[in-house]
Design goal:
This protein is α/β, with parallel strands linked by helices. It folds into two domains: 126 residues, 2-Layer Sandwich (Fructose-1,6-Bisphosphatase, Chain A, domain 1); 94 residues, D-Maltodextrin-Binding Protein, domain 2. The chain has seven helices and twelve strands. Helix 1 runs antiparallel to helix 2 and helix 6 runs parallel beside helix 7. The protein starts with a helix and ends with a strand.
Amino acid sequence: MQTFYTQVKKIINTSIVRKNFVKTKKDLSMLTKNDLIIQKKIIHLIKKYFPEINQFICEENFSLKNFKKINFEKPFAIIDPIDGTENFFADNKMFGTLISINSNSKKIDLIYIPKYKKMITRENIVNIFKKPKKNNTISLLSTKCLGKNYRGSQYRIYGSSAYSFYKFITGEVNEFIYCEGAKIWDCFTGLRLSTLISCKVEIKNKNWMKKPKFITKFRLRWI
């Protein structure tokens, strides 16, 4: 799969060189041409390597009506081309790409953080993950946690699930909490990767990984 991963990196690295704003979406989040280009190219790449996949769940052309028709027992792919688009457009490092694939023969989950040129996959996570130091009490929160009475210097909000999963998996924080409303492209990849390491994964619906709903809430903690 190294060739596939290399091509994913190339697509993303070359597609974020110039920033092109498109519009503000209904949920007030930002859409750039870069999001659209990466999504289109990743779909094309997946079809090339896994022609059996014709079910795609993608942030930038999502339809709840179509999502309800997805059969997760058949091949599918989930793509968030730029998670943390506002951060990307503001030229900071806190954004990334999330991709999950279930083909007939293989599961793929990857998080790619372009500014660090770091990719976490099912194959390398055991060598990458790191438990935080015992005195690390930092918790990451999603923006959905704003107004939930989380106070104090031990909390951080990055505005990107991809970047937050990366920080959690590499042991820089002790906890990652998504209070509510985690959309499937924001969390499926990171949660599936987290089940491969020695942390505690709490998901609202215990059967969510096999039969995911559009949104959920979760909590990751280092034991």
